[in-house]
Specification:
Length: about 55
Amino acid sequence: MMGFQLLRGLAFGLGSFLGATIVVSSLVYVLSFIDFLPVIGDWARQISTMIQTN
């Protein structure tokens, strides 16, 4: 029973991490195209280039 709960917790943690990664990277990708807000556009572009280089 405890082994099942451990595996369930690990699966939940991994799923949460992967889901958050996909959401954040998609948000940064969309924000990198915003040019009418220079601060957000530059910030998103910097994050986008950091992600692409790593």
